[in-house]
Each structure stands twice: as structure tokens, then as C-alpha cells.
């Protein structure tokens, strides 16, 4: 694993993407096919099945490290990463070895067949022959979440450099449900016929937020506008008589949304549609929290299916009759899609996302202002002659979201972050006034600058009133403006409301504690926008 | 060292221990040797404070870092090795000095200063009243670094310890290992035609790093804050390699392959941009943690601290023979809990040392 550890070190020691790409490309040129395949898998969010629990791992590490378990547990939130905490707690190894990455993954997978004592013996044996960085990576293989500063995009670029293939086609090959157990490096990357996988989606084209006035985009006639719906961006695939549903996070959601099983009744085989999965009330989407009730469930009870059936609001047609349409102009793809979707019955689980008619940018701005009435987050702007690109690209597609709603709230609890934010207080609970009481109503983790996080961290340390495990109750003193995209009634929360995408938009140094918003203010917002 | 060769600590006979933060000071037979007040660590028998954070009449100072040596006291007492830096940083102050190990009587207290190994001139302060001995350690490091006076264990009944790195995840490699990493980085940065910029606290850390660098690799340039401190220490006779002060009109092109030492705040600033293509690094015990290292967004993080690591803290505490341990700045709750399981009578003492803020993170 020394070459993989060296790769990690090279990537971890720099903040520059070019240097990271170079190190990865070098690895992809020199490593064995098995190690390359596993590296691709790890950096695209795939990992070996967990054969030991993190609880066992902690206990064993504490034992070997000669510290009580509680001390290791206390160190964890400060280090911010369990794999790292364990690696730092263990005594130095007594042996050395240089077995490849794939060996250790195979070793971990083989643990599943062993009893717990044997598993422990094997893990301890591994720790005893790995150096500190290798141990950290070995532990990461078990604890999961292999985020080490290599984005999928960066990995794809490095792979393109190493193989001489172009980036978009590699990105496409890496999509879908493959695992290192079901394919080989050759089949995944090098083989001519990369389309063999019927379930494979296309890389999603993502838009940037429009920061300037739309006037800069040129003539309105060149653009198509539609609502920016608030659901789950997804791709529905009909190939070889079966269907697959992928989320933008590349999660296969076919079973969660059984409504789409009827699609082959309405549509021909060999198509891929990009759209927004929304819970549909017959005329417009339900608020997002209705859909949310569906997301967590692998199987859906009948009642929920009836109350919140989902449909796909179709944005784009990426494949027809098995042919990739992504290079066609948007207007042609839309025309083909509209032709496919016309005359479908009202209860079909798919309908085209309607265009918004507008003559000039001012009239579009007026339409955008009514987005919340339509349960939309804003509008999307797409250049009519644009191809369907892969990944987040500037120029042809823009999201033009509504300004968020805001309330001024009081910080009452704080908790430390993890990873890059370890040892910093970054996770906060906010409250609004209800008479003389502060009622918690939301958490927020983002929106402050590093400098502001450092300041608030120092303040939290000096103003902690009480501790509940990792959570600190702090003196009510600081007021923050909380921005959010939507507000819904929620019986699960003490305040009775839940926010969509809450974040700290401003530290209101200017605002006295008593002038923060009230629960009644929130109820008014719920009345208006809920 | 005669003064540290204190005989077996005497049992304390069930006297009540000092309570943290009591604030009120009334002389009496049952006064503890040192107590913890809102101005700092106080010795009633000698009517003086150790490293106080509010202005007092008489302050005994362990070392020159800003959280320990504050301005505004009427009289200062520190080691002769520490005084020049204090004068440099605090300006016109009234300082009396002692040598390491020299015993002084102040009121009813016998006081002496012993090397803490934290940085050149840094001391632990031993206070003896009526046969009972307390030691306030200030900040310390038990491993010799080649430039600071090496840490000296001092026997005592009660030990006030820092615990900046009081978690088992903090373990330091030998200085020689880190020195090699540091010089390898400098050499490869120079080979790439770039400038190596190293962020380090200007008093202590910067000079220790200087002593670890291999001057054969290239010229060493310094930021004014570092160079001024270098000048003070050189004047005292501490051996440092030659450095070149970066004046406003210095042309970095005249110094290819250079390494620059600057305070962390200067990295990423206008000041550092003059060096063009550069590789940046920080040197601190916090660099042991990947999260902190990534947050710093430097190219490299070298794990080198002027504080004791976990093993160093335990070793130091054990060597004092103390029964009672008071934990100040750092992970005090966790550390005190650990000490209690190890048979010590340990308590947490809130102080205003360290501050746990950004500057502390950079300095440690």
C-alpha cells in the first residue's frame, strides 16, 4: 500500500489541483489494474462492505493504544475523524510490509466470514505492519467516506491524462452501479463497448447561480426559461425493457419510486430522460418535505404512495432509440421529448416541465417573483442551442433562484465540526423569542467565513454555560441572520416549523439580543410561504 | 541543580486544597502556597503573582509569550535569560532578574526559577512556603531542542501544569526526523525554483526552526518580527545561523533558493506575495491533526511544538512526585479526568493563558 499512501500524501500535501491531478495521473500510469480499479471506486464513493463496526474498532484501538476507551472517545471530536484518531492513538508498528491496496481490501472483505475474535486478530495484525499513513487509509477503508480532497471530477481528469481518453466519455463510463467486484479496470475504462451496462446514467449537467442581471445573457429569444422545481434531480432510464431511476447524487432510487414502473407502458424503449422527481398533488408539486418523507424509505407504504405520488417533471431527453442525443441543441432535444410525451394520460408518472413564456428580461423577472406561488425555487435559463454538457459548467445553463427568506435568530447551542472543521465550533442551534423564552427552531452549519468561525469558536469556549455531551449551551448573546429557501409546518419540531436549506447569512453584530425575531414572526412566514 | 533536588514530598495532612477562582485573598495559616484568583496565580506568603493577566504590583514571569508576560505590572521578576525579550516586547518596564536555580526570599516565600525547555529563557517557578513546595510550570517541553535551556524536573507537592496537547493523539517525532522533513521540503522547493515560506511564531518557534535548518541549502530570509527577536537572542549569546532581514527594498530575485521565516499572519498577505512562486508551510503541534492542517491551507504542515506531547506531560508530572496537579490551558477537563484515574489529585484551573484562539494555534 506504499504507493497508495504516497499518492495520498502527495494529494494531501497540496492545495493545488494541478499538483493533485499530476500525482493521481502518475498513480494511474504505474499502479496495477486492480489497485487502479479500487482507487477509482474509492474516489467515486464506493467502498468495501464494512466487516467490523466502528465501535469494535474503537475498543480494539484503545486497548492496543493503552488508553481507556473514554479517552479515545474524547479525542475523536477534537481530531474530527475516527480513522485518524485511531491511527494517532496506536503505538508504532513492530513490522513492515508492502502489500498492495487490493490486498488490504480483499483482507477486509474476507473478515465477513470470520468470527469476532479472528476479525480482531486480523485487524490488529494489519495495524502492526502498517505505517501511520497507511493505517489511517486502512482505517478509512473500514469507516468509509473516503473524502481526501480528491473530487470525482479531479479523478476523472487524472484518469483522462493517464489513459489518453477524453474526460466526458470517461465521466460517463464511471457512472452507474458498477463495483470493483462486478467489473475490471479493462472493462470499465478500456473496453470498446462501454455501453454494456443498461442501467448506466449520463453525467448530469449542472447550472451555476446567475449572479448578475440576465440582461448580460443577450437576447431573450435565445433562451428557454422554466421553473426551477424543488424536488430531486434525477434520470429515468428505459433500456432493454426495464427501467432505472438515478438521483443526481448517483444513487439508484428505482425501488423508492415504484410509480415509475409504469413508464414502459407509456414510453418506448431506449430512452433516458433528465428531470425533477416531485411529489405531485394533481396540478402542482407538494412542498419538498412531502417528498422528503419518501426519500428515506426503501419500500413505500401504500398510504404514502397514495398521499404523495411522485412524477418526473421532464427537462431533457438525453437518449432516444438507444442513441446519445447530448450533442443536439436543446431545442431539438426538447422537441423530440415533447413529441414522446404528448397525449399521455393525466395519471402518467411523467410530464414535460412547461416553458415559461416571456418577451423580455423584465417580464421574466416578474414571473420569477411569483416562483414560491408555484412551489418553485426560481427559474432556470437554458440556451436554446446548447448541447447537454457534463458537470457544472458556466455559460449555457443558469439557475436564477429567488432571494432566500430570512429571520434574525439567537444562537443557543454550539457543537464542533468534523474534518477540516474539527476543533472549531461550526454547528449551531438557533432560537426565536416566544415571550421571554427562546424556542429553538433550526440548526445551521454554513455561511460564515473561516475568520468568523474562529471568532465564534473562541467566544463559545469562554461562554459555555452547560455541556450535554458534545453540545454546549452558550450564553444567549449573538444574533445571526438565518437565510432559508422554504418553511413548512412540522409536528416533529418543538417550534412547529421546519426550514429548507437554512444557513447563516450574516452575523448581526448590530442587532441587540432582544430584537431577534419571534415565533409569531415565523408563524406569519409559514402562513405566507408554507 | 541544587534547588530542584528537593527531598521526598511531605504528605499534606488533609489540608484543604486551593479552590479555583476563589478571588478573595486573605492571609492566614491555612492559605495554600499558591491560589488561583481572577488576576492570576497568587502567592499570599510572598504577595506576588505568577504570569498574571491583570495589572498587579509584583509579577513573576515564566517566559516572554504574550499570554504569560503582559504589560502593566509595576514590578517584574524573571530570569536574566528571559529579561531582554521581555524588555523588547513590553518596552519600559521595571525588571529584576535572577539566574536559573538562584533562590530568592520574597516575604515568607522562597522562590526559584528552573528551565522549562519551552523556549530560550523560559522557566518554571518553584515556590516554597514553610516546607511545602509548589511549582508553576508556565509552558514546557521535556525534550531538548538544542537552543532552549533543557527542561529540568523539580520535585514538589503541587504542580501547576499546562496541557495544550493533553490528549494521547499528540505524539511528537524526534526533532531530527522533523528537521530532515523540513530540509527536504526546502531543498525540493528550491529545486523547483520556488521560495519556501515557513510560518512560525516569532519568539521561540522561529529560532528553534532556524537551529534545525541546513544553511547549505540556501539563504535564510526573515520577516522583521522574527529578525528583531533574533537580534535580541543573538545579543544574549544564543547561536543562530545567519539570516537576512527582508527590508522593503530587498529584491527576492537576488536570493534564489531562499527559505523565508515569517509570522503565520504574514503568509498569504501582501508581504509574502513579493516572493512570487512559493511553497508555504506551518510548523506547530497542531499540524499533527489533518483537519487543522487542511484548514491552514498551506502546502505543508510540520509537526513541531514548543509544548510537551502526551508522553512528555505524563513524564514531567511523574518526575515532580507531586500528589496534586492543577491543569491549566488546553484540554483541561479531559486531562484532569485522566490524571485522577492515575492516582493524582487533579483539578481544572481556569486561566487566561493560551486563549485557544487562532494565534495560540499558530504559536503552539
From TrEMBL, chain A:
<dbReference type="Pfam" id="PF04675">
    <property type="entry name" value="DNA_ligase_A_N"/>
</dbReference>
<dbReference type="GO" id="GO:0046872">
    <property type="term" value="F:metal ion binding"/>
</dbReference>
<dbReference type="InterPro" id="IPR036599">
    <property type="entry name" value="DNA_ligase_N_sf"/>
</dbReference>
<dbReference type="GO" id="GO:0006310">
    <property type="term" value="P:DNA recombination"/>
</dbReference>
<dbReference type="GO" id="GO:0006281">
    <property type="term" value="P:DNA repair"/>
</dbReference>
<dbReference type="GO" id="GO:0005524">
    <property type="term" value="F:ATP binding"/>
</dbReference>
<protein>
    <recommendedName>
        <fullName>DNA ligase (ATP)</fullName>
        <ecNumber>6.5.1.1</ecNumber>
    </recommendedName>
</protein>
<dbReference type="Pfam" id="PF01068">
    <property type="entry name" value="DNA_ligase_A_M"/>
</dbReference>
<dbReference type="GO" id="GO:0003677">
    <property type="term" value="F:DNA binding"/>
</dbReference>
<dbReference type="InterPro" id="IPR016059">
    <property type="entry name" value="DNA_ligase_ATP-dep_CS"/>
</dbReference>
<feature type="domain" description="ATP-dependent DNA ligase family profile">
    <location>
        <begin position="303"/>
        <end position="434"/>
    </location>
</feature>
<keyword id="KW-0460">Magnesium</keyword>
<keyword id="KW-0234">DNA repair</keyword>
<keyword id="KW-0235">DNA replication</keyword>
<keyword id="KW-0227">DNA damage</keyword>
<dbReference type="GO" id="GO:0006260">
    <property type="term" value="P:DNA replication"/>
</dbReference>
<keyword id="KW-0131">Cell cycle</keyword>
<keyword id="KW-0547">Nucleotide-binding</keyword>
<dbReference type="GO" id="GO:0003910">
    <property type="term" value="F:DNA ligase (ATP) activity"/>
</dbReference>
<dbReference type="InterPro" id="IPR012340">
    <property type="entry name" value="NA-bd_OB-fold"/>
</dbReference>
<dbReference type="InterPro" id="IPR012310">
    <property type="entry name" value="DNA_ligase_ATP-dep_cent"/>
</dbReference>
<keyword id="KW-0233">DNA recombination</keyword>
TrEMBL record, chain B:
<dbReference type="InterPro" id="IPR026360">
    <property type="entry name" value="Xnuc_lig_assoc"/>
</dbReference>
<dbReference type="InterPro" id="IPR050698">
    <property type="entry name" value="MBL"/>
</dbReference>
<dbReference type="GO" id="GO:0004521">
    <property type="term" value="F:RNA endonuclease activity"/>
</dbReference>
<protein>
    <submittedName>
        <fullName>Putative mRNA 3-end processing factor</fullName>
    </submittedName>
</protein>
<dbReference type="InterPro" id="IPR036866">
    <property type="entry name" value="RibonucZ/Hydroxyglut_hydro"/>
</dbReference>
